[in-house]
Amino acid sequence: MFLLATVCFVLRFTGSSLAAFEVSVPQRRVLAVRGRPVVLGCSYAPSLGNNLEKLVVTWQTAEDNLVLHSFYFGRDQLDKQNARYRNRTSMFHPLLGTGNASLRLDRVGPQDSGRYLCSVDSLLGNGKAEVQLEYAAFYTEPKLNIQVHPSNISLQYQSEGYPAPQVQWTDSAGCNLTAREELSGPGEDGLLSLRTSVTLKDPGPGVNLSFTLRNAALGQVLERPVCLSLAPCDPVNGTRVTIPVICVLCLLCLVLAAILCVQRKRIGRQRG
Ligand SMILES: *[C@@H]1O[C@H](CO)[C@@H](O)[C@H](O)[C@H]1NC(C)=O
Ligand SMILES: *[C@@H]1O[C@H](CO)[C@@H](O)[C@H](O)[C@H]1NC(C)=O
Ligand SMILES: *[C@@H]1O[C@H](CO)[C@@H](O)[C@H](O)[C@H]1NC(C)=O
Ligand SMILES: *[C@@H]1O[C@H](CO)[C@@H](O)[C@H](O)[C@H]1NC(C)=O
Ligand SMILES: *[C@@H]1O[C@H](CO)[C@@H](O)[C@H](O)[C@H]1NC(C)=O
């Protein structure tokens, strides 16, 4: 009887069930986009009639074992949760028993980039799987600032996003221009702040160039042509600066005409 029990015990724990228990992640790298919740996927093979009472799931950072979320005794256990993750994590409870141990993380920021471990302990065995999170934010519409000096013109674009972008300024012939580039942050909002400018000495009758910002993580490309001229200039979707210039010229003409008019009247009165 004792022997039989031992054989059963050995069979149970060396049998296929223990060897087959596996924890896996559908994606080894997950991209988290600012403003959207991210799901760190993790699944395990559920046993028949899996009992949530006997299930332990823990999500931790791989580097320093900070706890993001734990589940055991049939419910969330957040006593050991690190403060960084407070009110930001949740599991899909109705799906837990079916082998879905994924974690949802809200309000992601740059500090969330890193490796995470999903550990599952069930009646059938235990296992771990690792997933890497990368954070990115779309760059905002670049704001143009133009400074006209007697000897040069300076054009500056400002935009915010994450991570560091690739910036390119090209002239009308498609050649790269030398640009200044300043990147600061990220701030509380999880965005890097970019300022980039080119200065053109002796720009001549006009400026015709193009600014391109690329965020490789998100495949985002922002291309903005800039066309500045005193002569009529018709860029496709370009930034138009000609209309204000023409307005100023018209205004000058009007003022000049008014002065001439007044002077002519005065001369006429003096004669008369
Ligand atoms: C778990 O369920 C959530 C919500 O339906 C889903 O987004 C996620 O992809 C699932 N994960 C796995 C590993 O099946
Ligand atoms: C989490 O939410 C609770 C209840 O809504 C709130 O009292 C607490 O201050 C929040 N904690 C953090 C760190 O945001
Ligand atoms: C552009 O002109 C201004 C004023 O003339 C001058 O202060 C500035 O240094 C010039 N910039 C460059 C890059 O030459
Ligand atoms: C500006 O440059 C682009 C690209 O080289 C060209 O297609 C366009 O005609 C130019 N515009 C003007 C006003 O010169
Ligand atoms: C211009 O610069 C970009 C990146 O800044 C680079 O990929 C490209 O090869 C350069 N083109 C030329 C013609 O130098």
Automatic annotation (TrEMBL):
Look up keyword Membrane and say if it applies.
Answer: yes
Q: Pfam families this protein is in?
A: C2-set_3 (PF22705), V-set (PF07686)
Q: Which GO terms describe its cellular component?
A: external side of plasma membrane
- A biological process from GO: regulation of T cell activation
Task: Give the transmembrane region(s).
Answer: 241-262
Any idea where the Ig-like domain is? 21-136
What keywords are assigned to this protein? Disulfide bond, Glycoprotein, Immunoglobulin domain, Membrane, Signal, Transmembrane, Transmembrane helix
Any signal peptide, and if so, which residues? Answer: 1-19
The terms under GO molecular function for this entry are: signaling receptor binding
Per the record, the major location class is membrane
Quote the subcellular location field of this record.
Answer: Membrane
| SUPFAM superfamilies given in the database record | Immunoglobulin (SSF48726)
Xref: SMART domains: IG (SM00409)
Could you tell me what this protein is called?
Answer: Ig-like domain-containing protein
